[in-house]
Automatic annotation (TrEMBL):
PANTHER family: S-ADENOSYL-L-METHIONINE:CARBOXYL METHYLTRANSFERASE FAMILY PROTEIN (PTHR31009). This is S-adenosylmethionine-dependent methyltransferase. The keyword S-adenosyl-L-methionine does not apply. It comes from Acacia crassicarpa (northern wattle). GO terms for biological process: methylation.
Length: 208
């Protein structure tokens, strides 16, 4: 369930689109490794916490999944399929048919994300209805109580904006145009940490 709409504005820095040499699609093996390592954690959480009996009786048998920060693939498809396979496995173990549920997947990323490449890359044998949801996940994206499961892999560490103190020449946290900071820059560290706290609170408030 999502709470009130966020009024924050957000900076956009989407991943490189397309499938060329410098695209995210060709340079996201590390992210895929993380998704592969953590897939059993997601599987265990679904098996333990997702109440299929309630969903069968209280809904239209449609399970809605949102992947926040999906980029252009192919990692997002791997993550989504792991979820669907686990739900089907749990459904069968409880004596329900393999096709007891239909799945609707919402692929979310910034407005500038290359959704064309993403949707051209959709698996031909996909078992779900795919939807694009452009916008920042630091704010509200969906109607209340409309999503059953949210996923965000390797995306939450991205801030919604550069902390204003970092670019203010009169601020003790002014970082002099650098795109990095070192341990000695305590004020810079505090500014980034404070921005992360604000962003993460906004992220959670928009989902709960």
């Amino acid at each position: 369930m999502e709470s009130k709409r966020s009024n924050q504005s957000h900076e956009e820095f989407p991943m490189n689109g397309g499938k060329g040499k410098y695209s995210y699609a060709q340079n996201s093996n590390h992210q895929r490794l993380v998704a592969d390592i953590t897939k059993h954690i997601i599987r265990e959480a679904i098996l333990e916490m997702l109440d299929l009996e309630t969903l069968l009786h209280d809904s239209s048998n449609v399970i809605r999944i949102a992947d926040l920060g999906c980029s252009v693939g192919p990692n997002t498809f791997f993550i989504v399929q792991n979820f669907i396979d686990t739900v089907n496995l749990k459904s069968q173990s409880q004596g329900h048919g393999f096709d007891s549920f239909e799945f609707q997947v919402f692929f979310n990323d910034h407005v500038g994300n290359d959704f064309n490449t993403l949707f051209k890359s959709l698996p031909e044998d996909k078992q779900y209805y795919a939807v694009a949801v452009p916008g920042s996940f630091h704010g509200r994206l969906f109607p209340e109580s409309s999503i059953h499961v949210f996923n965000s892999t390797y995306a939450l560490h991205w801030l919604s904006r550069v902390p204003k103190e970092i670019v203010d020449e009169d601020s003790p946290a002014y970082n002099k145009g650098k795109i990095f900071y070192i341990d000695e820059d305590k004020e810079v560290t505090k500014a980034y940490f404070a921005q992360f706290e604000r962003d993460f609170e906004s992220f959670l408030n928009s989902r709960a």
